[in-house]
Amino acid sequence: MIQVFTFKPALHSQTTPATMKPQNLFTTLFEYKTWANDKLFATLVALPWDGQEREKRDATRVMNHVYVVDCIFKSNLQRQPHAYKGLNTEATPALADLRDAVGETDHWLLSYASEIAEAELAENVDFTFVDGSPGRMSRAEMLMHVVTHGNYHRGAVGRILTQIGVPPQRDTLTVFLHSPEHARSAKQR
Question: Closest by alpha carbon to 77, among 29, 121, 130?
Fold first, then answer.
């Protein structure tokens, strides 16, 4: 059963409703995911990686893993098979190509989260994990997994960047909720 989350009016936005339905929450979370990925990829692409090829490869591999898992769950949400045999690809993609692919998948996930009916969020979907074991999750659980999984691994990339002297990203949900980008999208709802 899907419950309605009730929040006290927030200081961050005058457009935040006192009662937020799960679909609106997922829309906000996927707007945040898209925003945070865009910020991280902009940082990664702009860095001079001379002498830090290992760190660049590691950061790219981590973000590629996130992309692969997003694609797997995109297929699961559609009840379609996918071609992945593992949780990453053998080859490491070019960073610019990965950024473009992640952007397309983020757009699809945001559209899906924005359009899914509240009743569909509780629907269980059977699927097969890449190791061949059976899985079953509700659509809401899958969406939450995609959001939290990406957050975790962006943090890992942030740690790699910190080790090479790049200041930590200001890419938390609270920063996003106070950003002009979020204010614009919240007014459109």
Answer: 121
Give CA–CA dist 140/55, Å, rounded.
34
Q: Tell if the pTM clears 0.90, that is, is over it.
A: no
DSSP state of 65: H
Please report which helix (H) or strand (E) contains residue 6, including its range.
strand 5-6
Give 150-172 pLDDT, tens digit per residue.
999 999 999 999 999 999 889 99
**Per-residue DSSP letters for 28-49?**
HHHHHHHHHHHHHHHHHHHS--
Nearest to 21 by CA among 114, 102, 92, 103: 114
Say which residue the tokens 């996918």 belong to. 82
Asked if 103 and 96 count as a contact pair (C-beta separation under 8 A), the reply is no
Q: Return the SS3 of 68.
A: helix
